[in-house]
Q: What sequence folds into this?
């Protein structure tokens, strides 16, 4: 794992959260993106070499909606940049970690992603991220 790529924060009102985080970080949201497969809208902020990703549900069937219903707004996941997501997933499986998917899937910000179950990572949902070439 190379570095923390971003921190994901679940929010109940994305528009209001964007205003709050623009003021807090003193920087504008540089990218918004819908991830239809996850039923979520995202907003990204660059801070140093890392990013903050705000996640707003677009449906009651969204995992973000369920998360907020159970836990309220707040930290959803910590994402780590990896060079080879499949190799990292295999390494973690062999070390006894449970992954939430068998294969990486397309996420926001042109990334392949996979999640490690929070019960295996001291209660924190962990995301693996690998950048995809712009042509994919």
A:
């Amino acid at each position: 794992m190379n570095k923390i790529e971003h921190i994901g924060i679940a929010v109940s009102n994305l528009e209001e959260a964007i205003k709050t985080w623009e003021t807090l970080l003193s920087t504008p949201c540089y990218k918004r993106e819908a991830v239809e497969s996850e039923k979520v809208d995202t907003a990204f902020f660059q801070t140093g070499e890392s990013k903050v990703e705000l996640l707003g549900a677009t449906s009651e069937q969204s995992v973000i909606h369920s998360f907020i219903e159970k836990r309220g707004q707040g930290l959803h996941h910590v994402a780590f940049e990896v060079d080879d997501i499949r190799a990292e997933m295999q390494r973690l499986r062999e070390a006894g970690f449970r992954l939430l998917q068998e294969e990486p899937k397309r996420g926001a910000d042109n990334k392949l992603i996979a999640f490690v179950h929070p019960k295996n990572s001291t209660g924190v949902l962990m995301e693996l991220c690998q950048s995809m070439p712009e042509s994919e």
Notes: Residues 3-131 form a domain with the 2,3-Dihydroxybiphenyl 1,2-Dioxygenase; domain 1 fold (CATH 3.10.180.10). The beta strands are 3-11, 31-35, 40-47, 50-57, 74-81, 105-107, 111-116, 126-131. The two ends are 23 Å apart (CA to CA).
